[in-house]
Amino acid sequence: MILFGYVIMSNHIHLIVQSKDGNLSELIRDFKKFTSKNCRSHTDRAGKRKGVDA
Hints:
The chain is an alpha+beta fold. The protein is built from one helix and two strands, in the order ββα. The chain has a two-stranded antiparallel sheet with strand order 1-2.
């Protein structure tokens, strides 16, 4: 992934990216999978299973 820019908002992010191999769909799928698993592991450790507090 080539990251050109990003903005972190209170409940989402904006990314300007380019896939090195030209397949943006797979890049987005993998990124969403990674972030979802990471967020769930952090909320499970804190005992909060219904979402992430902002």
